UniProtKB/TrEMBL annotation:
The keyword Hydrolase applies. It holds the Pfam family Abhydrolase_2. Residues 29-229 form the Phospholipase/carboxylesterase/thioesterase domain. This is Phospholipase/Carboxylesterase. InterPro entries: AB_hydrolase_fold, LYPA1-2/EST-like, PLipase/COase/thioEstase. Belongs to the AB hydrolase superfamily. AB hydrolase 2 family. GO terms for molecular function: hydrolase activity. Transmembrane segments: none annotated. Keywords: Hydrolase.
Length: 246
Protein backbone atom coordinates (compact mmCIF):
# COMPACT_ATOMS: atom_id res chain seq x y z
CA UNK A 1 0.00 0.00 0.00
CA UNK A 2 1.50 3.37 -1.02
CA UNK A 3 1.39 4.87 2.46
CA UNK A 4 4.11 6.99 4.01
CA UNK A 5 4.56 8.79 7.34
CA UNK A 6 5.90 12.33 7.40
CA UNK A 7 6.03 15.30 9.73
CA UNK A 8 4.66 18.42 8.06
CA UNK A 9 4.99 21.54 10.17
CA UNK A 10 3.98 20.60 13.73
CA UNK A 11 1.90 17.52 12.80
CA UNK A 12 2.74 13.91 12.00
CA UNK A 13 0.81 12.71 8.96
CA UNK A 14 0.00 9.60 6.99
CA UNK A 15 0.13 10.21 3.23
CA UNK A 16 -1.68 7.98 0.76
CA UNK A 17 -1.70 8.21 -3.01
CA UNK A 18 -1.37 6.04 -6.09
CA UNK A 19 0.36 8.66 -8.22
CA UNK A 20 3.13 7.63 -10.62
CA UNK A 21 6.60 8.43 -9.20
CA UNK A 22 7.42 12.10 -9.50
CA UNK A 23 3.91 13.18 -10.51
CA UNK A 24 2.24 15.95 -8.55
CA UNK A 25 -1.42 15.65 -7.57
CA UNK A 26 -4.08 17.95 -8.95
CA UNK A 27 -5.87 17.94 -5.58
CA UNK A 28 -4.59 17.33 -2.06
CA UNK A 29 -7.30 16.27 0.39
CA UNK A 30 -6.53 16.72 4.08
CA UNK A 31 -8.71 14.35 6.12
CA UNK A 32 -8.77 14.91 9.90
CA UNK A 33 -9.94 12.38 12.49
CA UNK A 34 -12.16 12.87 15.52
CA UNK A 35 -11.56 12.90 19.28
CA UNK A 36 -10.17 9.67 20.70
CA UNK A 37 -9.25 8.11 17.37
CA UNK A 38 -5.68 7.22 16.36
CA UNK A 39 -4.01 9.43 13.80
CA UNK A 40 -4.45 6.82 11.08
CA UNK A 41 -8.14 6.23 11.80
CA UNK A 42 -9.42 7.52 8.45
CA UNK A 43 -6.53 6.29 6.28
CA UNK A 44 -8.72 3.52 4.76
CA UNK A 45 -10.72 6.28 3.04
CA UNK A 46 -7.81 6.77 0.64
CA UNK A 47 -7.90 3.35 -1.04
CA UNK A 48 -11.70 3.23 -0.60
CA UNK A 49 -12.26 6.42 -2.61
CA UNK A 50 -9.67 5.58 -5.25
CA UNK A 51 -11.09 2.06 -5.56
CA UNK A 52 -14.55 3.47 -6.23
CA UNK A 53 -13.28 6.05 -8.70
CA UNK A 54 -10.09 4.76 -10.38
CA UNK A 55 -9.77 7.91 -12.51
CA UNK A 56 -8.80 9.79 -9.34
CA UNK A 57 -5.75 7.59 -8.74
CA UNK A 58 -3.46 9.83 -10.80
CA UNK A 59 -5.07 13.03 -9.55
CA UNK A 60 -5.49 13.00 -5.76
CA UNK A 61 -3.22 12.73 -2.73
CA UNK A 62 -4.75 12.12 0.71
CA UNK A 63 -3.06 13.43 3.85
CA UNK A 64 -4.21 12.31 7.29
CA UNK A 65 -2.76 14.45 10.12
CA UNK A 66 -2.64 13.11 13.66
CA UNK A 67 -4.06 15.48 16.27
CA UNK A 68 -1.38 16.89 18.58
CA UNK A 69 -2.66 15.65 21.97
CA UNK A 70 -2.19 12.10 23.26
CA UNK A 71 -5.00 10.56 25.32
CA UNK A 72 -2.96 7.80 26.90
CA UNK A 73 -3.42 9.38 30.35
CA UNK A 74 -7.20 9.11 29.82
CA UNK A 75 -6.81 5.39 29.24
CA UNK A 76 -7.06 5.60 25.45
CA UNK A 77 -3.75 4.20 24.15
CA UNK A 78 -3.10 5.53 20.66
CA UNK A 79 -6.02 7.96 20.94
CA UNK A 80 -5.46 11.56 19.87
CA UNK A 81 -7.34 14.84 20.33
CA UNK A 82 -7.24 18.27 18.76
CA UNK A 83 -8.29 19.74 22.11
CA UNK A 84 -9.53 18.19 25.34
CA UNK A 85 -13.20 17.54 25.96
CA UNK A 86 -15.15 17.63 29.21
CA UNK A 87 -16.08 13.94 29.12
CA UNK A 88 -18.24 14.17 32.25
CA UNK A 89 -20.31 16.97 30.68
CA UNK A 90 -20.63 15.01 27.43
CA UNK A 91 -21.73 11.84 29.21
CA UNK A 92 -24.25 13.76 31.32
CA UNK A 93 -25.72 15.31 28.18
CA UNK A 94 -26.01 11.92 26.47
CA UNK A 95 -27.62 10.37 29.54
CA UNK A 96 -30.14 13.18 29.96
CA UNK A 97 -30.88 13.55 26.26
CA UNK A 98 -30.44 17.30 26.62
CA UNK A 99 -28.94 19.01 23.58
CA UNK A 100 -25.59 20.65 24.28
CA UNK A 101 -25.75 24.15 22.80
CA UNK A 102 -22.10 24.98 22.13
CA UNK A 103 -22.67 27.96 19.86
CA UNK A 104 -21.08 30.44 22.26
CA UNK A 105 -18.22 28.12 23.24
CA UNK A 106 -14.56 28.48 22.30
CA UNK A 107 -13.07 25.44 24.08
CA UNK A 108 -9.76 25.67 25.91
CA UNK A 109 -6.99 24.70 23.51
CA UNK A 110 -9.15 25.06 20.41
CA UNK A 111 -7.50 28.15 18.95
CA UNK A 112 -4.05 26.78 19.79
CA UNK A 113 -4.89 23.58 17.91
CA UNK A 114 -6.18 25.63 14.98
CA UNK A 115 -2.89 27.56 14.90
CA UNK A 116 -0.95 24.29 14.68
CA UNK A 117 -3.26 23.07 11.93
CA UNK A 118 -2.79 26.33 10.05
CA UNK A 119 1.00 26.00 10.32
CA UNK A 120 0.68 22.47 8.93
CA UNK A 121 -1.44 23.68 5.99
CA UNK A 122 1.00 26.51 5.28
CA UNK A 123 3.95 24.10 5.28
CA UNK A 124 2.07 21.60 3.12
CA UNK A 125 1.24 24.30 0.61
CA UNK A 126 4.87 25.44 0.49
CA UNK A 127 6.15 21.87 0.04
CA UNK A 128 3.59 20.88 -2.58
CA UNK A 129 3.60 24.11 -4.54
CA UNK A 130 -0.19 23.84 -4.90
CA UNK A 131 -2.42 26.87 -4.30
CA UNK A 132 -5.08 26.66 -1.62
CA UNK A 133 -7.64 26.38 -4.42
CA UNK A 134 -6.33 22.82 -4.97
CA UNK A 135 -6.47 21.78 -1.31
CA UNK A 136 -9.61 20.23 0.23
CA UNK A 137 -10.17 20.28 4.00
CA UNK A 138 -12.24 17.34 5.25
CA UNK A 139 -12.85 16.00 8.72
CA UNK A 140 -14.99 13.98 11.09
CA UNK A 141 -16.38 15.37 14.35
CA UNK A 142 -13.59 17.26 16.15
CA UNK A 143 -11.54 17.06 12.95
CA UNK A 144 -14.35 18.76 11.03
CA UNK A 145 -14.59 21.55 13.59
CA UNK A 146 -10.87 22.35 13.42
CA UNK A 147 -11.12 22.21 9.62
CA UNK A 148 -13.92 24.79 9.66
CA UNK A 149 -11.92 27.21 11.80
CA UNK A 150 -8.90 26.92 9.53
CA UNK A 151 -10.85 27.07 6.26
CA UNK A 152 -12.41 30.36 7.34
CA UNK A 153 -9.03 31.79 8.35
CA UNK A 154 -7.12 31.05 5.15
CA UNK A 155 -5.97 33.99 3.00
CA UNK A 156 -7.52 32.37 -0.09
CA UNK A 157 -10.43 29.91 -0.20
CA UNK A 158 -9.70 26.18 -0.21
CA UNK A 159 -11.05 23.96 -2.98
CA UNK A 160 -13.80 22.75 -0.64
CA UNK A 161 -14.71 22.00 2.98
CA UNK A 162 -16.15 18.58 3.86
CA UNK A 163 -17.79 18.18 7.29
CA UNK A 164 -18.87 14.81 8.66
CA UNK A 165 -20.78 15.00 11.98
CA UNK A 166 -19.84 18.60 12.75
CA UNK A 167 -21.37 21.38 14.84
CA UNK A 168 -21.40 25.15 15.31
CA UNK A 169 -18.90 26.52 17.82
CA UNK A 170 -17.80 30.13 18.55
CA UNK A 171 -20.74 31.45 16.53
CA UNK A 172 -19.88 35.14 16.61
CA UNK A 173 -16.28 34.48 15.52
CA UNK A 174 -17.23 32.11 12.70
CA UNK A 175 -20.07 34.35 11.48
CA UNK A 176 -17.68 37.30 11.26
CA UNK A 177 -15.05 35.21 9.46
CA UNK A 178 -17.63 33.70 7.09
CA UNK A 179 -18.94 37.14 6.15
CA UNK A 180 -15.43 38.24 5.11
CA UNK A 181 -14.31 34.98 3.51
CA UNK A 182 -14.32 34.27 -0.19
CA UNK A 183 -16.89 31.53 -0.76
CA UNK A 184 -16.04 27.87 -1.31
CA UNK A 185 -18.22 24.76 -1.67
CA UNK A 186 -19.19 22.85 1.47
CA UNK A 187 -20.35 19.27 1.91
CA UNK A 188 -21.94 18.35 5.21
CA UNK A 189 -23.50 15.14 6.54
CA UNK A 190 -25.07 14.40 9.91
CA UNK A 191 -27.02 11.61 11.58
CA UNK A 192 -30.42 12.47 13.00
CA UNK A 193 -29.75 10.11 15.94
CA UNK A 194 -26.31 11.51 16.83
CA UNK A 195 -25.95 11.60 20.66
CA UNK A 196 -22.43 13.11 20.60
CA UNK A 197 -22.98 16.19 18.44
CA UNK A 198 -26.76 16.48 18.09
CA UNK A 199 -28.41 17.10 14.73
CA UNK A 200 -29.56 20.57 15.78
CA UNK A 201 -25.94 21.74 15.93
CA UNK A 202 -25.40 20.63 12.35
CA UNK A 203 -28.41 22.66 11.23
CA UNK A 204 -27.12 25.73 13.08
CA UNK A 205 -23.80 25.33 11.27
CA UNK A 206 -25.46 24.87 7.89
CA UNK A 207 -27.65 27.93 8.46
CA UNK A 208 -24.65 30.04 9.47
CA UNK A 209 -22.88 29.20 6.23
CA UNK A 210 -25.94 29.70 4.05
CA UNK A 211 -26.74 33.05 5.67
CA UNK A 212 -23.26 34.11 4.55
CA UNK A 213 -23.83 33.04 0.93
CA UNK A 214 -21.99 29.70 1.04
CA UNK A 215 -23.43 26.77 -0.92
CA UNK A 216 -23.90 23.75 1.37
CA UNK A 217 -24.60 20.24 0.05
CA UNK A 218 -26.24 18.80 3.18
CA UNK A 219 -26.97 15.08 3.66
CA UNK A 220 -29.01 13.96 6.65
CA UNK A 221 -29.33 10.28 7.46
CA UNK A 222 -30.96 8.07 10.05
CA UNK A 223 -28.02 7.04 12.16
CA UNK A 224 -25.59 7.98 14.95
CA UNK A 225 -22.21 9.76 15.07
CA UNK A 226 -20.62 8.28 11.96
CA UNK A 227 -19.76 8.77 8.29
CA UNK A 228 -22.47 7.25 6.07
CA UNK A 229 -22.17 5.73 2.64
CA UNK A 230 -23.81 8.73 0.99
CA UNK A 231 -21.11 11.01 2.41
CA UNK A 232 -18.33 8.89 0.91
CA UNK A 233 -20.14 8.80 -2.43
CA UNK A 234 -20.50 12.57 -2.45
CA UNK A 235 -16.88 13.04 -1.36
CA UNK A 236 -15.75 10.97 -4.36
CA UNK A 237 -18.01 12.98 -6.66
CA UNK A 238 -16.62 16.24 -5.28
CA UNK A 239 -13.04 15.12 -5.90
CA UNK A 240 -13.99 14.05 -9.41
CA UNK A 241 -15.56 17.46 -10.10
CA UNK A 242 -12.52 19.28 -8.72
CA UNK A 243 -10.05 17.27 -10.80
CA UNK A 244 -12.17 17.73 -13.93
CA UNK A 245 -11.92 21.52 -13.89
CA UNK A 246 -9.07 23.49 -15.43
Amino acid sequence: MPLTTKTIGPLTCQIYDELPPGQSPKIISIVSHGFGAPGDDLVPFGPEILGRTPALAEQVRFIFPAAPLSLIEMGIPGGRAWWMLDIAELNASITSGKIRDQRDKTPDGFLEAAQQFREFVDELQAESGLPLSQIVLAGFSQGSIISTEVALSLPQPPAALVLWSSTLLCEQRWTSMAAKSEKFPIQQSHGKQDPILPFAGAIWLKDMFEQNQFTVDFSEFMGPHTIPEIALDKFGTLLTDLTSTD
